[in-house]
């Protein structure tokens, strides 16, 4: 009985910590995207959208509805600064859906207890790279095609998608390495 | 019914996805027309305020550039002063001028948010309806034209820059006054525009200046750029040519909003004419 109570308290403490960490991550990611990366643009082809890191790093156990709400809010927050209401929100919602599919295929449900978040240090390089690359390419593909709704410029859009995705993936991997925790690695 | 519920809960991710995706797309498509007022843009209190703070910091880094351009403009204006011309007649006539009435008024504003790397670029400035900015006004800077105001809040305004798919302004060749219209080029290059629909009689030369015609929001003769190439992509009845823009949109810092005092009168008259037809 006592042990149960302590467990419950522990899990509550853990949960509030997760909420605070994710809230801070939301704010930091939006600030980095809007005030730093918005000004970065290589040869009009490569523009990083680093903010999707927030959705990628949400815990495994987050309920679907909350995941979609957060993705929508993040998209709207970015849209407010980019003057493109709905554009990033639509791309983020798609990203959230693909995330659910990808995780349900590749991660076993029993593993959730010791693997709370899909970070680079917990999941290992190979899984994290595939996860980031696939989700980023889908997000960017949808985003650029929705922004410039024109099939005649498809090669241009595709090259933008590929170059921007590689830039974003690079940034996300670097951020994963910066916050790499050796202890958590099995 | 129960089976339906089980079905929905089993695939809840998909149904939630549909709901959120559709609502996001509705927001996107509705706002695209830019007619409806919306709070999700960079002229609302939160985003506008944050952008203003960051641009204050940024402006320190660009002080030397701004000083430079102001000094140049000072020089230009000083060259136009009466006192800088040698008077070769001894008598001067003083004419009190009642013929001219002030047509254009300028409202200076600072750029607090700017983009040049997307298909549709907007600029946010720190002047709004309280300072007299209204939708549809033209925006220039000391080097040339910038764009037009599309959305106004009390303290901020959003300007649709020349670097926008839908931007099109009336322009003319400075030497022989041939009329055309200036648009952004196809390559998303912030330094290149296209001058379209110039009549075939015009003999444009590389390096010739392109200025505003006075038919649209801007006074006549505001610089736009110089012709850099005479390629005719579309061909046909009219000439198209590539223009190197005079304004460096990546370094915009101070702009002037042009308030055309007669715009309403002109619009009313032209609307009347359309109605009569």
Structure description:
- The complex is a heterodimer of chains A (186) and B (277).
- Helix content of chain A is 70%, strand content 0%.
- Chain A is mainly α and 186 residues long.
- The radius of gyration of chain A is 18 Å and the shape is globular.
- The mean pLDDT of chain A is 83.
- Chain B is of the alpha+beta class.
- In chain B, strand 6 (169-173) and strand 7 form a beta hairpin.
- Mean pLDDT of chain B is 79; it is low at 89-95.
- The A-B interface holds A 35, 38, 41, 44, 47, 64-65, 68-69, 71-72, 75-76, 79-87, 89-90, 92-94, 96-97, 100-101, 146-148 and B 12-14, 16-17, 19-21, 23-31, 38, 40-42, 44, 46-47, 51, 54, 113, 115-120, 122, 124, 158, 187-189.
Sum this structure up briefly.
The complex is a heterodimer of chains A (186) and B (277). Chain A has 186 residues and is mainly α.
Number of strands of chain A: 0
Q: What is the radius of gyration of chain A computed over CA atoms, rounded to a whole number of angstroms?
A: 18 Å
Largest interface here, residues on each chain? A-B, 34 and 39 residues
Order of helices and strands of chain A: HHHHHHH
Judged by helices, strands and strand pairing, the structural class of chain A is mainly alpha
Major sheet size, sense and barrel closure of chain B: 6 strands, antiparallel, barrel
Q: Largest sheet of chain A at a glance?
A: none
Quick one: overall form of chain B?
globular
